[in-house]
Please model this.
Amino acid sequence: MLTKHDQILQHIEGLPVGYRISVRQIAKQLGVSEGTAYRAIKEAEGQGLVSTIERVGTVRIERKQRRDIDRLTFAEVVNIVDGSVLGGRSGLHKTLHKFVIGAMELEAMMKYVESGSLMIVGNRQEVHVAALEMGAAVLVTGGFTVSTRVAELADRLELPVISSTYDTFSVASMINRAIYDRLIKKEILLVEDILGNHVPSVLYDTQTVENYRELVDTTGHSRFPVLREDGKLTGVIAAKDVYGQEPVTLIARVMTRQPISVTPKTSVASAAHLMVWEGLELLPVIEFRRLVGVISRQDVIRALQYNQKQPQMGETLEDVVLSRFAETYEEQTLSLAGEVTPQMSTTHGGLSPGAFMTIVGEAAMNVLRRHRDTNMLIENATLYFLKPVQIDQRVEARARVVDVGRKMGKVDVELFRQNELVGKALLTVQMLER
Model:
């Protein structure tokens, strides 16, 4: 039987996109307290079912798929450009597909406008009207306002008209930067990307050790999540927990309580580190304390191997740093040499500790791969010292393996500037068995 909380979530999910909801309205419709309605609406916001838009309220939105993460809503555009809404406020939840800069003649620019576009233009009323009629929202630059006719048309078509004090080039750069940042996020492999649709095998805290052993015989696995009757995760149970126990013993008495878990938005790299660090073969995946699946160590390793083979789209800070460095290997020492660029510097013009750790981390893992071709995660890094290194100076990181085993490797990395030792670090790296 669904709880009142779940009934509210189910009700919200069934509402049409663009529908406005309020705590008082939900409480009255479903006969629940305003506190219960408020908590359920907050959870719906966390699940991406609704969005709270300033001066509009809470609106049912279309849940973004992972592949659409690079798309912005018009409400997000308002925040990015520090704008104000002049009309069409009810359409702020809609998604921006592309933007067009209105720097041409009207007839020429309309060839590029389509439904879901954003027209970025100055004080040109004829462009405002034409864009709205083509199904596009309008962003007016330079702090200009719009005519009453344009504002009324925007309200009728539910297409936002936004005004920003920035110039056209600045707002286009801001929007492009926001989309670019999201492309980088899109490349990061999350647990939800490898979760799949299969229903995990589970036990309930009211079942017995005998039920556990039957499930082991059926599935061939030995570790299972344990749920309460309401579907919330309460523990995990493994072979060590039931060893020597009577068949009638309740699982609730022998299970491991408050188990380590991850959410669908946890990165696979973080999940891998957690599994190695804690010695886990299975991780429950929960969302708002409810089990949505499980991932195994093999799932994580396969995903990391697959992700390493994929072409990258967005350039991260790590890409910027390492793109200027070249690798050589000689006499058991791996060298990574390159120039210090402005992006790697502190405000005082020296090599930043963060850029230094990026360089030595890459050198450490690359030299270990000469010994073991496997997935790796840096567990610990000790920075002994880092002397000032100026922009445009050439540096060389020399990495040497101190010790390597089946699960761990230690690497000593030294940074040189024209044969002068300017930095030193010791890194411990975890090996993920395939």
